[in-house]
Design brief:
single chain; alpha+beta; Rossmann fold; 2 domains; 6-stranded mixed β-sheet; 23% helix; binds adenosine-5'-triphosphate; transport; ATP-binding; Spermidine/putrescine import ATP-binding protein PotA
Length: 367
Amino acid sequence: MASINLENVQKAFGKVVAVDQLNLKINEGEFFTFLGPSGCGKTTTLRMIAGFYYPSKGVVRFGEKDMTRVPPEKRNTGMVFQNYALFPHMTVFENVAFGLKVRKVASSEIKKRVKEVLEKVRLEKFSDRQVSQLSGGQQQRVALARALVIEPEILLLDEPLSNLDAKLRDEMRTEILQLQRDYHITTIYVTHDQAEALSMSDRIAVFNFGVCHQVGTPSEIYNEPANDFVASFIGEINFIPMKIEKTDKQTIEVSILDGSKRLHVNHTPFNYREPKANEDVVLSIRPESIKLSPNRFDSVNALEGKLELIQFFGSMIEVLVNVNGLMLKVNMLNSNDLSHLQKGTNVWINLPEESIRIIPKISGEIK
Ligand SMILES: Nc1ncnc2c1ncn2[C@@H]1O[C@H](COP(=O)(O)OP(=O)(O)OP(=O)(O)O)[C@@H](O)[C@H]1O
């Protein structure tokens, strides 16, 4: 087991900077996820940790040890690739044993270790089967067994479930977490699937365009997003463009850009600095945090709007409210008292102070 430290790491391919100014500390035994859209630099970062790429700048350490230019075979990392990268005409046993043979482990020891790991991934009966004759989920387990059998200090998983159907993905998620706990191994998991990241990880790093925007626990990332990119990438969210009128240690007073309404919110500093007066910002609030009523709320943060759309999802109801041309999504639990939910009627919404986050505008998508 080892901790991993990336210090000011950059990787450029010619003029393309795939990863820039990356500083990360991944703790021993942690299940750590790189999350972000396609092309954001997740795989490149993973490959720098595996040693398949060397950084253009910066340092990679395992614990205190400088690994920046150590070749992959000397790193003691196990990697599982998106396409599994198994040898199709070899048996399950031969695939899993391969890394041990390369390391010149004695054949009796190889037999013992391969048997143990195949039991762990529930493939002991498939030892002599060719991998081309296995299902996707079984092949994925062979890939996991092959990575684990060398007893790596670090397990690197690059979108390992993306080729599986939804049900199998759910099952494999649980299996991977169980294996990670059993082996208590420092694990990095790459995905673009936010649900996967939120449900599996101890901590998550959110990437976009080669930059890491936030590192935090799933609840920190969901409840305290660092900026509008992170907020919009993780879960559903409403954004309202705002200007900061006043700010002090306790509260921030913001106004909707046309000046029609001022709101009060709890002061929470931006990730790296304090918000400033006159700054254009984004008010963000999750759909489940907005309260809705046919009557006016006794609150400064109440807004009047019109019900535009009501969608029933059994236990939950999703509503769109038009507030002066701005569409806000409200998610409510299904309750008996729904008589006021008529399309076209006027309603009031309340944005509770404690659920609002004022965040910097960085993505340029919100005008
Ligand atoms: N070998 C390479 N040569 C040139 N450019 C590369 C190379 N590898 C990656 N890139 C570029 O670097 C950027 C980051 O790529 P990377 O594969 O790390 O993204 P990713 O987040 O893993 O995406 P995906 O989820 O699609 O795999 C992209 O713009 C990509 O085109």
